[in-house]
TrEMBL record:
<dbReference type="GO" id="GO:0008237">
    <property type="term" value="F:metallopeptidase activity"/>
</dbReference>
<feature type="signal peptide">
    <location>
        <begin position="1"/>
        <end position="23"/>
    </location>
</feature>
<dbReference type="InterPro" id="IPR024079">
    <property type="entry name" value="MetalloPept_cat_dom_sf"/>
</dbReference>
<dbReference type="Pfam" id="PF05572">
    <property type="entry name" value="Peptidase_M43"/>
</dbReference>
<keyword id="KW-0378">Hydrolase</keyword>
<keyword id="KW-0862">Zinc</keyword>
<feature type="domain" description="Peptidase M43 pregnancy-associated plasma-A">
    <location>
        <begin position="210"/>
        <end position="297"/>
    </location>
</feature>
<protein>
    <submittedName>
        <fullName>Metalloprotease</fullName>
    </submittedName>
</protein>
<dbReference type="GO" id="GO:0006508">
    <property type="term" value="P:proteolysis"/>
</dbReference>
<comment type="similarity">
    <text>Belongs to the peptidase M43B family.</text>
</comment>
<keyword id="KW-0732">Signal</keyword>
<keyword id="KW-0645">Protease</keyword>
<keyword id="KW-0479">Metal-binding</keyword>
<feature type="region of interest" description="Disordered">
    <location>
        <begin position="242"/>
        <end position="267"/>
    </location>
</feature>
<feature type="compositionally biased region" description="Polar residues">
    <location>
        <begin position="246"/>
        <end position="258"/>
    </location>
</feature>
<keyword id="KW-0482">Metalloprotease</keyword>
<dbReference type="GO" id="GO:0046872">
    <property type="term" value="F:metal ion binding"/>
</dbReference>
Amino acid sequence: MLFNKLISLTAVLCVSAASLVDAVAIDNKACDTNFDPETKALMEADFQARLANQTASLVSDDGTVSNFANFLLDPFDVYFHVISKDESEKGGNLSDETIDKQIQVLKDAFSGTGIRFNHVKTTRTVNPEWFKKAGLKNKPLTAHMKRALHEGGSADLNIWSISFDADKDFWGSGLIGYSSFPTYAWSEPLLDGVMIDYRTVPGGKHKNRDRGHLLVHEVGHWFGLYHTFEGGCDDKIGDGIDDTPAQKSSTNGCPKSRNTCKDREGEDPIHNYMDYSDDRCTNEFTIGQMLRMTSMIRTYRPNWSSQKA
């Protein structure tokens, strides 16, 4: 019954792709990852079926991961597009050293998942209008910028760093990043990628998000992960991951512990990259998230190595 619905699912995904983006706010209130229940249910039924078929090759008989590091994808090529108002680092022109540190943070965060990255190119564009006004508030301008700079295909990660100044009033709390979901690779390939506030890189000026973990979070979405608090306590599907406990709302700061769904098993996954905890607090993906990402890659961003290392 499920696979008889896949043709209609494809049509729904192509129509809905424009809404499949994520927005992270400074005070954790603004988010634009929205799915209607029917679309989400169809997506998750398909993804869970794919995960079930792949689990046997990744998980041993005792339920532990056999070796994610040996279940290798080809490296994902990374194109980092630096947008600035002038040629100074204060004006958004991130140094090569800073970009290298950010890419290393990304590599380290995904190091146990079998997902690897290869930074192949940095582009630099001095454009005050793009730097200040690009974002969710000004979608036509943002689309123009992305189309002008995007490189590669569905398995190539494009990153744009801007100021998000225009979105601070738009969201009321301060947007600092968002990502396209994997289905964007089908419907809007030149808009596919991740946007981050240039102040969130390692050593940046953004309070509590200055270690480069925002990019890790957004790339998690790029590989198909929801927030850990998706659906709250009552949504049966939630984030589609069995080993991330239900979570009513996003985490603010870095508490010692938190349990917002007391009738559900487990405390909030406050150390997970897909929560909104401060950078100093986040340090993990779960096995379930790793399985979901590999399934999403097979489906939307095919980049599979024919041989293990």
